[in-house]
Amino acid sequence: MQCPLLYRFRVIDKLPEKPSEAATRGTLVHAVLERLFDAPAADRTAPRARALIPGQWERLLEAKPELGELFAGDAEGERLSRWLGEAERLVERWFSLEDPTRLEPAERELFVETELESGLRLRGVIDRIDVAPTGDVRIVDYKTGKAPRPEYAEGPLFQMKFYALVIWRLKGIVPRRLQLVYLGSGDVLTYDPVVADLERVERKLLALWEAIALATETGDWRPRPTKLCGWCDHQAVCPEFGGTPPVYPLSVRPAVSGEDDQGRMGPDRAEAGRPVALEGR
Q1: Do the Cβ atoms of 223 and 239 come closer than 8 Å?
Q2: Which of 93, 111, 190, 258 has its CA 20 to 30 A from that of 74?
Q3: 0.85 cut: is pTM over it?
Q4: 71 exposed, middle or buried (CB, 10 Å; 0-12, 13-18, 19+)?
Q5: pLDDT for 274
Q6: What is the dihedral of CA 136, 140, 146, 150, to 10 degrees?
């Protein structure tokens, strides 16, 4: 949705991307918030959460040694100390937004997967699922950045509706609430979905997959320039920056009449039952 060419670089070409301090800090904070719920409710305090940070960072390094490159040349450890301090502040802010002593999540970091009638498989990992005594389900996602302005809120909400659709199709339950917790700005964004919302998301995902299938067959993946391009690892091979993409690794077929535009495909081209998947995270 953000950039078809970036999708190709990541999913088809599998071009490597350097770890970033911001994304890795987000992974660290997620790990701390997940592990905090291992403790009894009364012990879920800010000091305990801060104390989890060094150990979780060591676990990340053990699982992905390449993350150590983030602080190469930091002989005195000043950058690492500052980075860990930023993670601490994000964790501490969470306690002003939610009270973990009053929460008992039904699931944490839950992998979910379902297959639609069309054959399209949806899967993702949900940060937290709360279930009320009434049976109402709340899906919670932590964001370590700042909340978007209202006119840009639909993007993050689409991710949450994606999760809600998976839960609905998997369990037959429409989540009562979707909740985005923005630790960077201290905001909480909520949305209460209805069936019509999820049906619209399902139609959008089917159209999106049809566009992906067409681009895969034709090799026509076009860049979509935005302000985010400045953060992209693949500028050297992107036409928008004067680069040339690597040779397309898949066989292609010539585009036929009516298939000129990236992201468009007629309904007759849908391939029900094809083992395909879209992921949300």
Answers
A1: yes
A2: 93
A3: yes
A4: middle
A5: 34
A6: -30
> Residue 55: which H helix or E strand, with range?
helix 46-63
Q: Name the strand (E) or helix (H) holding 203.
A: helix 195-218
* Alpha-carbon span 28 to 236, nearest angstrom: 29
| Model pLDDT, residue 74 | 86
Residue 205 exposure: Cα atoms within 13 Å on the Cβ side: 27
The segments of the chain whose pLDDT lies below 70 read 255-276, 280-281
Residue 160 tokens, joined? 């949450």
Distance between CA atoms of 259 and 215, rounded to whole angstroms?
A: 10
pLDDT value of residue 180: 98
Note whether 21 and 82 are within 8 A (CB).
no
d(CA 189, CA 243): 39
The per-residue pLDDT for 150 is: 86
**C-alpha angle 249-1-110 in degrees, rounded to nearest 5:** 95
Confidence at residue 26, expressed as pLDDT on a 0 to 100 scale: 97
- The tokens for 24 are 């890795």
- Residue whose pair of structure tokens reads 């350097």 in the numeric block: 18
Chain segment 26-48, per-residue pLDDT in tens: 999 999 999 999 999 999 999 99
In sequence order, the β-bridge partners of residue 178 are 139, 191
Count helices and strands (H / E) in the chain: 6, 6
